[in-house]
Amino acid sequence: MSQSFFSLIERDAHTHVLQMVLGALFMLSAYHLFMFFRNRDRSYLLYSSYSFFSFLAYLPVAEQGFLVTFCEITGLDYNTKTFFTIIFNCIYFFFFAEFLDIKPTNKRWYKIIVFPVATFALLAVVAFVLDKMTGQDILNLYNQVFIVLITLQTALSFYILMKLQNKLKYYIIFGGLILFVSSILGENRVRNHPWINISRETGNIIYFVGLLVENLAFSLALGHKQKVIFDEKVAYHKEAVEALQKNEILKDEVSRENEIRLTVENEKFKYLQQISDLKLTVLQNQMNPHFIFNALNSIKFCILENDNEKAVNYLTKFSKIIRTILAASRMKEFTLAEELHTLQLYVDIENLRFTDIDFQIYVAPQIEPDAIKLPPMVLQPFIENAILHGLSHAEEKRITLDIFEQSDTLKIHISDTGIGREAAMRLKTTVDSRQKSMGVNIARGMLKSYFEPRDFSIEYTDLFTFGKPAGTRVEITLPNADF
């Protein structure tokens, strides 16, 4: 009588715990699916799938109540339980590989973790279909093999996780260990040992609680990751503001140093002074308040739209281009590699205002960008003109930068798909014309001072397609500088 009473209590507790766990899994799945559509982070989608397939897997375990009727109507049984269990175990690996950004960190580790479980999942689908078609117990036979394979894969993946330099990995390890221990205690061969001796219902309760704790650990991990992203965004924004403040101080210091230098230098240093003045002018041109205001507003728009990753990415690039501009004020020359990197950062910033700008760089194989020297940021005014006066009014927005050797010269061709110079002249205001002239004249003066007495040239060519304006190409020819 007493044993029957306790068995009844265990069955009731088993049912209530199962219903609680299933409800929690369904809510976690729905919530993180919503978070995926809000943040567009694939980690949320994979975790939502993991929770949902866990929910489907354990619906047939219910022994009473409306869940039994639901399973009978939908055809969910212990065969589908086995299939969905395999699937959510495979999704687990996809989830933590995406969550911990393993692919960008180490592609080899990513392949070791993901490729085998993708194969396991595909084989499970094949076994499930064959099971339904032939009536043979193929899926259960495959499941026995799968348990061995997934155990080995888990051990290998956890070994890789321990080597990963990411503190978020401890959420994954903690959740995985909790589920592993609870699943061991729920196994028939383990729970019937004399020194354990617990009933099937109690073993299932332990497993269900472990499953719930694991899912909650993963949910907390996603929340922690979101907080880290937010903190990084705030830090980058603070860094950008500090860089702007330091730039104002640096501009004043450079101006004062330049005034003192002008009073003591003689004709021997005119060449160096000319380069310094031109660099200061470029600095002022790049740092004009209009450009900074528009760039920060664009980044603020990304933040308000909850596009956190994009906002953080562009805050990083904005701070980098600010530091590059500050460095340029004190440098005599850039390498071609530094110049191309700065141009890419500049176009990325402008892409916040003029979206869909396709910026392509082609460097001939025999060119060594790290060996070629140029005045700092000398190509930026040409890219700026292409964007503001050509692409801003065009449907197709593409800039192509081609760099190659020809005879004893270095050729730099900047081609755009804008509206052409004639149409651009009709649209420009007087202020626009003066700004374009200033930028190009500064670049021309820097090239002249840098390569003198050797010759260089800048030529413009209008591009046409079927007789209609199709853009402009700037052809810059530089003398051989041992490249």
Automatic annotation (TrEMBL):
Residues 20-224 form the 7TM-DISM receptor extracellular domain. Residues 279-356 form the Signal transduction histidine kinase internal region domain. It comes from the Bacteria. Keywords: Kinase, Membrane, Transferase, Transmembrane, Transmembrane helix. Pfam families: 7TMR-DISM_7TM, His_kinase. GO terms for molecular function: kinase activity. InterPro entries: 7TMR_DISM_rcpt_extracell_dom1, Bact_2-comp_sensor_kinase, HATPase_C_sf, Sig_transdc_His_kin_internal. Gene3D superfamilies: Histidine kinase-like ATPase, C-terminal domain. The keyword Mitochondrion does not apply. This is Histidine kinase. It comes from Kaistella pullorum. The lineage of its organism: Bacteria, Pseudomonadati, Bacteroidota, Flavobacteriia, Flavobacteriales.
